[in-house]
Design brief:
Strand 1 and strand 2 form a beta hairpin. Helix 7 packs antiparallel against helix 8. It contains nine helices and 17 strands. The chain is an alpha+beta fold. The chain has a six-stranded antiparallel sheet, with helices on one face. It has a five-stranded antiparallel sheet with strand order 5-4-6-3-9. The chain folds into two domains: 140 residues, Cell Division Protein Zipa, Chain: A (2-Layer Sandwich), CATH 3.30.1400; 148 residues, Cell Division Protein Zipa, Chain: A. Helices cover 35% and strands 21% of the residues.
């Protein structure tokens, strides 16, 4: 089909117009890009974080709690996990020194009692043998009206037996002005309640699933009793349990000595019991002789070197190749003194029974080995005290159980 000159002219004009519009738009785009580059040139600070960069994931923040291989870990329980602000000190300002010990989450006007680590704000403290800020996760709830202890006990019976760690219930007695342990025999009514789940024992730390179950059950109980619960961070509590368990594992040592028959023979049970009791040892129901201090706390134990326990009903017919004396370092208040007492008792038993004193490898116990045990005991108990766990204290007895 032939085009007229007019049609050809119109087509050409249209092509030129389209080309001009496209070119204008491209020029405008380049102009705006240059303007934007001039305004936003360089890295801009985040308005909320200042010069800091937020971690890409929650895991990045948790790196602060991870220990590199071979690095010494003292128990430190952060109250929160956040990027650290840059600290700028004024001239002539000296930051106070702090010990690397576990702390509770406290307000500025509250005091911490050094021995228990508990918060004091003129309110009575939770008894350390049942709950404290280091060994436990303590959840509290406050009801509008007093709730009976039997009602609380009935609700917690539904799930408490599922827990592998010890649980203690406490209530604040307003009339007495103190916290008290609540058990099946309590019939009182209380507004303020606390429940403590032990975080660590010798089996390891509490698991995430168990801790989550604990939180959920207490929250449900609060709803059913019209109480308001106070729950800490689950992640921070788990991190605290892991750090505490690692610290405890590093100081959890038991020293043993053996008294064996000098010629390779056996000790007669009838003579053994008389000699042990003459040395101040008492045979207990679990088949162990024990030495206890004036308060009734165990200093060390004496067991049969064989598999058979030293039961009262069978000891007369027992014949054993030796005895094992054990010192549980974290569970005695003065480890060196307890070891020296155990050593003296072992020598006394050996002399009376015709035995010799050997170490765990059945080698004769040398003076150098004795000094090494004393030194290690002293070191371990010093580390415990530095970490806020006094050897032999209620806290230590619970953690090392």
């Amino acid at each position: 089909m032939a085009f007229s000159e007019l049609q050809i002219a119109l087509i050409g004009a249209g092509i030129v117009a389209v080309a001009m519009v496209w070119g204008y738009n491209a020029w405008q785009d380049r102009k705006h890009r240059k303007t934007a580059d001039g305004i936003f040139k360089g890295k801009q600070a985040d308005a909320l974080l200042g010069d800091r960069e937020a971690p890409a994931t929650a895991g990045a923040a948790m790196d602060e709690l991870r220990r590199e291989p071979g690095e010494k870990l003292e128990p430190r329980f952060p109250d929160s996990i956040e990027p650290a602000d840059e600290i700028v000190e004024e001239p002539d300002t000296v930051a106070p020194e702090t010990d690397d010990v576990p702390t509770a989450d406290v307000d500025a006007d509250q005091d911490i009692v050094p021995e228990t680590g508990q918060v004091s704000d003129s309110k009575p403290l939770l008894p350390e043998e049942c709950a404290d800020a280091v060994a436990d996760c303590v959840l509290t709830m406050v009801a509008l009206e007093p709730v009976s202890a039997p009602a609380i006990w009935a609700l917690q019976n539904v799930w408490a037996e599922e827990m592998s760690k010890a649980i203690h219930w406490l209530a604040r007695d307003d009339a007495a002005g103190s916290w008290r342990v609540v058990d099946t025999d309590d019939t009182g009514h209380y507004r303020e309640w606390a429940v403590a789940l032990q975080l660590v024992d010798r089996r390891g730390p509490v698991s995430e699933s168990e801790l989550g179950r604990f939180f959920d059950c207490v929250q449900q109980m609060a709803q059913e009793t019209g109480a308001v619960p106070e729950l800490p961070s689950l992640a921070e509590t788990l991190a605290r349990a892991g750090a505490l368990d690692e610290f405890c594992a590093g100081v959890d040592i038991q020293f043993v000595l053996h008294v064996v028959e000098a010629s390779g023979g056996v000790f007669a049970g009838t003579k053994l019991r008389g000699v042990a009791e003459a040395a101040g040892l008492m045979l207990e129901s679990d088949g162990l002789f024990r030495e206890r201090d004036a308060t009734g706390s165990e200093l060390f134990s004496v067991a049969n070197l064989g598999a058979e326990p030293l039961a009262a009903e069978s000891i007369k017919s027992l014949a054993t190749h030796g005895l094992t004396l054990s010192l549980d370092v974290p569970r005695v208040s003065d480890g060196v003194q307890a070891f020296d007492h155990m050593l003296a008792t072992a020598r006394q038993l050996g002399d009376r029974l015709g035995g010799v004193l050997v170490d765990a490898q059945r080698a004769p116990l040398s003076d150098a080995m004795i000094e090494a045990i004393r030194g290690k005991t002293r070191e371990l108990q010093a580390r415990m005290r530095d970490g806020g766990i006094s050897p032999g204290s209620p806290r230590a007895l619970r953690l090392f159980s």
